[in-house]
Design goal:
The protein is globular. The chain folds into 2 domains: about 210 residues, 3-Layer(aba) Sandwich (Rossmann fold); about 90 residues, Tyrosyl-Transfer RNA Synthetase, CATH 1.10.240. α11 packs across α13. The strands form 2 sheets. It has a 3-stranded parallel β-sheet. It has 14 helices and 5 strands. About 55% of the residues lie in helices and about 5% in strands. With about 325 residues, it is mostly helical. The structure holds tryptophanyl-5'AMP. Tryptophanyl-5'AMP binds next to β1, α1 and α8.
Length: about 325
């Protein structure tokens, strides 16, 4: 059986990018694999959240995991910081992670650009912590969006380096996984290539957004004056709207607006109205469950306790074996 591991950072509510890039695969994978899905709260400390925000965001993600259909009886759902074994493995991996390779990582370079006033060591070593998350359970598959591809490559480097250094085939090589043909990247409503929360508030639609907020955001999405010649290539912002329509609307709807675009008859207002209704329809069942679960503190506590217990069994075994391999022996 495959071991599957993945996590999501608690930085607010989950958006459509998180859902289609990762969560949708989590839900399918839990049926036939041994899955560990966690809330990456250690990782979220790179931006220095307040204690209240941190806890609130962890709760949001937990509620949204459950509302979307993750089943704590099938998959192990846990909070990263409930597994200090991850932090120990992170320390050990850092000894063989080179500053040069960490500095070359695309996400690190992006963070330097986004937050030049806060380039901390946690940002630099983000990929080693992520590798620790994955190999602590000796995972084979990691369902993630396209933006995490390089982190997975680095995880394989660190796992292989450990194996070579100690001359043992201990860690498997984990691969990024999706049920789609390629890893997914959901674009933003603001014309950006990736829907994300941190860059621009209007770029992302959250699973918990009420219908009127969804409509407002979609109607405000960036467009242009429209095509002037038949079959003209689509500018990025327009391509983004069509990409969103491809995942959220049915095929006929997509084809209808695509044909209108190609014959220069498209009215973006009509297209956005349709897209907004399709997003509202898609998110409706999640929204209801999110509301219902948010007030059930007792159940949420049970879920994380059970998850931590199950995750610890796997993590403690790995740490015990890794310590032995490294040569930390008891007298
Ligand atoms: P994070 O929290 O930024 O995103 C969580 C997951 O959502 C995916 N995602 C997207 N997919 C498609 N289109 C988008 N616009 C989009 N935005 C986000 C991400 O690819 C990711 O799968 N480093 C990870 C968290 C993490 C992790 C791990 C993941 C920590 N440890 C171990 C896997 C295994 C992150 O920052 O994801």
């Amino acid at each position: 059986m495959n071991i599957v591991v993945s996590g999501i950072r608690p930085t607010g509510n989950l958006h459509l990018g998180n859902y289609f890039g990762a969560l949708k695969s989590f839900i399918r994978m839990q049926e036939e694999n041994q899955c560990f899905f966690f809330i990456a709260d250690y990782h979220s400390l790179t931006t220095h959240p307040t204690p209240a925000d941190l806890h609130g965001n962890v709760k949001n993600v937990l509620v949204e995991f459950l509302a979307c259909g993750l089943d704590p009886e099938k998959a192990t759902l846990y909070v990263q910081s409930d597994l200090p074994e991850t932090a120990e493995l992170y320390l050990l991996l850092n000894m063989n992670a080179y500053v040069g390779e960490l500095e070359r990582c695309t996400s690190f370079k992006e963070k330097i650009r986004q937050q030049p006033q806060n380039v901390n060591a946690g940002l630099l070593t983000y990929p080693t912590l992520m590798a620790a998350d994955i190999i602590i359970h000796r995972a084979h598959k990691v369902p993630v969006g396209k933006d995490q591809e390089q982190h997975l490559e680095m995880t394989r480097t660190f796992a292989n380096r450990f194996n070579r250094l100690y001359n043992i085939e201990y860690f498997p090589e984990p691969v990024a996984y999706t049920f789609e043909e390629n890893l997914v990247k959901i674009p933003g409503l603001d014309g950006s290539l990736k829907m994300s929360k941190s860059e621009n508030e209007n770029s992302a639609i959250f699973l918990a957004d009420p219908p009127e907020v969804i409509r407002k955001k979609v109607m405000r999405a960036v467009t242009d004056a429209g095509p002037t010649e038949p079959n003209q290539p689509k500018p990025q912002a327009i391509e983004n709207l069509f990409s969103l329509m491809k995942v959220l609307s049915d095929a006929e709807t997509y084809d209808h607006f695509n044909a209108l675009y190609n014959s220069c008859q498209i009215r973006y207002g009509d297209m956005k109205k349709q897209l907004a209704e399709d997003v509202v329809r898609f998110t409706e069942p999640f929204r209801e469950k999110i509301l219902e679960l948010s007030s059930n503190e007792e159940y949420l506590r049970k879920v994380v306790e059970m998850g931590a217990e199950k995750a610890r069994i796997s993590a403690q075994k790995t740490i015990r074996e890794v310590r032995e391999i490294i040569g930390f022996k008891s007298f």
